[in-house]
Amino acid sequence: MREKVNGNELYYNKLGQGAPLLLLHGHHLDGGMFDQVVAPLSLYYTVYVLDMRGHGLSEGEIAEHYQTEVEDVATFIKQVNIRGCYCFGFDAGGLVAMMLASQDQHVFKKLMVASVFVNGNGIRPYHYLTEGVLRYLHFDRDSQVELTESFMSVDSLKAIKIPTYCVVGEKDWVKVEHVRWYSQIIPQGQLLVMPRQKHNSYAINSFKLLNLMEDFFK
Questions:
Q1: What one-character DSSP code corresponds to residue 129?
Q2: CA-CA distance, 162 to 104, in Å (whole number)?
Q3: Which of 59, 118, 143, 198 lies deepest, with the highest CB count within 10 Å?
Q4: In the chain, how many domains are there?
Q5: What is the CATH number of the domain that holds 78?
Q6: How many CA atoms within 13 Å lie on the side-chain side of 150?
Q7: Cβ distance 216 to 110 under 8 Å?
Q8: What is the C-alpha to C-alpha distance for residues 206 and 194, in angstroms, rounded to an integer?
Q9: Structural domain harbouring 136
């Protein structure tokens, strides 16, 4: 399915019945990262899987700013009439969801984010110095946005008033202590560390978060 959002046709998949659940992918990915979990989640929810602009089957150039993606998601939610939905966001998709939740207190009912860092202190040095910088130097826009705009202030974190589950892999390049720190600032924040999991291993084409999502969003 397609929806014209802020000048671009964005592709999304819709499946199931019940309360709406929006899934947001990370940078360098698209909604296909959720292929394993869409069908089982659709037994309980109406699942919306959105390709952000410039990703997957959506039109447009990759956004130069996170706020552009925040506005795209907000507009999409309004146009398909799912305000007050549940939301799961991975990586940059999780940061976009957190930014939106801090700006609009009623856009989501509950929020789960995985492998999100909210400032430069949240990245392990080896990742920043290898993959991150190399992609930046090759003018990879997703990486440029992540390395220059991944920031939420303490006040903006405190402005997220809804129940928020913050998940991170034990061996993630996002620091566990960083996720623990901001999960304690969010008024209704919770933390879960996924044992032995790396950044991509538990959320991309994986069932590992399925039961957790079903329990948290019910």
A1: I
A2: 11
A3: 118
A4: 1
A5: 3.40.50.1820
A6: 25
A7: yes
A8: 13
A9: 2-212
